[in-house]
Specification:
The protein has 120 residues and is an alpha+beta fold. 26% of the residues lie in helices and 33% in strands. It is built from 3 helices and 7 strands.
Length: 120
């Protein structure tokens, strides 16, 4: 599962919130969303199933959301380690209920994004 697979999912399921898909590096996509925010998607090309999804909203409402599974030892106490979710702030990290494997993790995250955008 790579970026091309995720691009297909975006085009199939999330064009109601995504207005542009940019490839910013070999392992990274940037999604421009209809509310003016963006999501950076990174999928490791070296380590299977290693990813992060960063939703940048600081310029809109001072929030960020990020779901990733990079094993940061600061979050070892979380039951879902190495999976963790940065909720609204960089330093507010909680356990995650999103899927653990691509593409499920990505779809869960994007559905969260859609729901959050529709609330605002």
């Amino acid at each position: 599962m790579g970026l091309e697979d995720l691009r297909s999912i975006i085009e199939d399921k999330f064009l109601d919130i995504v207005i542009e898909i940019l490839e910013s590096a070999p392992d990274k996509l940037r999604l421009i969303l209809k509310d003016g925010s963006f999501i950076d998607i990174r999928v490791s090309q070296k380590i299977k199933n290693r990813f992060d999804f960063h939703w940048e909203r600081r310029h809109l409402d001072k929030t960020i959301y990020r779901y990733d599974n990079f094993p940061n030892t600061r979050f070892k106490k979380l039951k879902t380690f190495p999976y963790h979710f940065h909720k609204k702030k960089e330093n507010k990290v909680v356990e995650s209920s999103f899927g653990k494997r691509l593409p499920d993790a990505f779809i869960d995250f994007m559905e969260f994004v859609r729901k959050t955008i529709k609330k605002s």
